[in-house]
Amino acid sequence: MKSLLIFFLLLFVGLFTLQAQEIRVYKEPEFGFDWSKPSEYPDRIILTFGEDATSEVSVNWRTNTEIRTAFAELAVATGAPKFWRNAITQKAQTEVFEASQIATAEVVANYHSVSFSNLTPGTVYAYRVGDGTRWSEWFQFKTPSDQAGDKFSFLYVGDAQNYILELWARLIREGYRKAPDADFIIHAGDLINYAHREQEWHEWFTAGGFIHSMLPTLAVPGNHEYNYLNEADRESRKRSLSIQWKPQFSFPPNGPKGLEETAYYVDYPDAKFIFLDSNRDQELQAAWLVEILEANTKKWVIVSYHHPLFSASAGRDNEALRMLWKPIFDKYKVDLALQGHDHSYGRGRVSPGENVMDGMNMRDKTGTVYVVSVSGGKMYGIKPDGWEEWGAVRDRAAENTQLFQVVSIEGNRLLFESYTAIGELYDKFELTKGEDGINDFRDYKEVLPEEFRFSNTIPYEDQLPQIVEEKLLDTYPGFKVGQVRFFEEKGKARIRVILQKDNQTKDLILDQEGRVISEK
């Protein structure tokens, strides 16, 4: 009996080992050339705020060039199905989008936009868009309250950028499920990977679906929203803003001259949201930022831009930008800075007073809280030694984790919560604003899980099975395994392995059992 138990135990261990060593090749989706092309039906319908969030919204959408005249209809929504009897119809502004000669864009379309103003705060509205015959469904949104102190919330996400429809879709949809009453979404740049690529913009709109049409989007361009339009631009190193950016978004045109709709601000009764384009004209924006903050009367100030002043990932410091913008944030008591770019997570603080850290002070009070987050599937490693060398304290970090954030503001209280793509709480802190404008800080580390790292999450890089690695290193003594990549060739799984020893490199192709097929 004992020997029989040992037999089954060994059999189980053997099967488990084989299963654990299985080579799994990921198959990325392929999209047909026409998948992202426009038709006569409205698509890419997206809502944005005007300067006054309580009374101004804009809606943009796309069709093919057959649709030269378009409209948007708006009505106060009620429970009665024929609420549309009270609708107004407004003719859209239409512009031709000619990108047939731009690589990766290669499309001609019409973009339409309508701005609605004088809306009633705290009211549910319904709208639809179309050409008078072909209409979208009715979408609903709610204008914010105009009463200072009333509660509101919003979502914030870092870079979507890669594997957008594959992996970002689950993240943004989970964010909507977690915070269905959120007022809007902040996107901190790098919405896509290649600035002008139609397919990626189509992935982004498809991934968000109706969410884009119901929660206003407030976005800043990242470095991946800038790229060359042609070879001449590449030779002169002239990078242009994504040609889709301005036709498909209607952000308030209240930014510095030449930066309209990439730098702008939006007002709530108790909060000012300022959006900056960290890719260019940083000094011009610094002067504009001072002007805006000098005149500010709002209790809360939240800024968003792409390149972090305090980088979460190793080797990605933006010192010049920090030296330029941070003194302004300090002087005018910016409460929260929402950033992207680093494909990891970091959250930390600076002193509320002089740029000198005080352990006791930092435990109870804080200046600007800086957050870096990533929502897409591309991941980098974190800066291992925190932010102390830059005069800040990093309180929380993560690697290899897709995250979205929910920020809620009510009166003197701001609550920040970060969640994983499956809705797990990962980070949480609270700010309470004092009469002097200084924020009391409370961390919730006692309710948070262990920090996520590459070492305690599902491997991000392909991993050579241990048995195969041991056999390979026996065959090539003194070498170490470098890059490992799984791929498929003629329907069979293959492993590419780079081995390195001193100045020697071997480029191997293995079959699924670990046998060497070719060597370079």
UniProtKB/TrEMBL annotation:
The keyword Zinc does not apply. GO terms for molecular function: acid phosphatase activity; metal ion binding. The keyword Zinc does not apply. Pfam families: Metallophos, Pur_ac_phosph_N. InterPro entries: Calcineurin-like_PHP, Metallo-depent_PP-like, PAPs-like, PAPs_N, Purple_acid_Pase-like_N. Keywords: Signal. Residues 42-143 form the Purple acid phosphatase N-terminal domain. Residues 156-345 form the Calcineurin-like phosphoesterase domain. It comes from the Bacteria. Gene3D superfamilies: 3.60.21.10, Purple acid phosphatase-like, N-terminal. This is Metallophosphoesterase family protein. The lineage of its organism: Bacteria, Pseudomonadati, Bacteroidota, Cytophagia, Cytophagales.
